[in-house]
Amino acid sequence: MSAIEKTFSHIDSQTNYPTMVDVSDKAVSKRTARAQSIVVLGAEIMQYLQGNDIQTKKGPVFQTAIIAGTMAAKRTSELIPLCHPLALENCKVEINVNGLQEVVIECLATITSKTGVEMEALTGASVAALTIYDMCKAFSHSIVIKETKLLEKTGGKSDYNG
């Protein structure tokens, strides 16, 4: 395997052109990925938090973000070039407020397949964060999507626990 194949799996070693990774020889295994996005809404918006959600004219913010994140995870291959289209077996988006008054979004994606679901989990968390921004921007434009990261993955060649 060439250095370029190790570094960039989406580059064809013969042509140096982008290509989808060939997973036809990989073993099928149960694969999971959990990703997180953190949104800082600020006190101006957090004052509207009642129970576990913020109600706006557009509807319940966190409930809508959960639906959007799930839909996005299911459609990741339409958004990210060269991603394999996957039939997710499970996708769960959870939204909580931490002790720093930040909105913490976690997306867990699961599949039994030849390829992992990291991009689906990351996309789900990211789109949920963007949905929260969209629904709350009428209150303030100083909202910050602070970070999106992979927390863990299982299955395939190696596990990851960040």
Features:
162 residues, alpha+beta, Alpha-Beta Plaits, five-stranded antiparallel β-sheet, three-stranded antiparallel β-sheet, 8 strands, 32% strand, elongated, disordered N terminus
Protein topology:
Layout: H1 3-7, E1 29-40, H2 43-46, E2 49-50, E3 53-56, E4 59-60, H3 61-74, H4 76-79, E5 90-97, E6 103-113, H5 118-136, E7 144-154, E8 160-161
Antiparallel strand pairs: 1-6, 1-7, 2-3, 3-4, 5-6, 7-8
Helix pairs in contact: 3-5
**Class of secondary structure makeup:** alpha+beta
- In the CATH hierarchy, what is the class? Alpha Beta
The level of helicity is 25-40%
Total of domains: 1
Helix and strand pattern: HEHEEEHHEEHEE
Q: What's the gyration radius in Å?
A: 18 Å
What's the CATH architecture name? 2-Layer Sandwich
Distance between the termini: 27 Å
The strand count comes to 8
The biggest beta sheet is recorded as: 5 strands, antiparallel
Placed side by side, the strands forming the largest sheet appear as 5-6-1-7-8
SS summary, helix count: 5
CATH evolutionary superfamily: Molybdopterin cofactor biosynthesis C (MoaC) domain
Q: Overall pLDDT, averaged?
A: 91
What is the fold named in CATH at topology level?
Answer: Alpha-Beta Plaits
Relative strand content: 25-35%
Q: List the uncertain runs.
A: 1-5
Choose one word for the global shape.
elongated
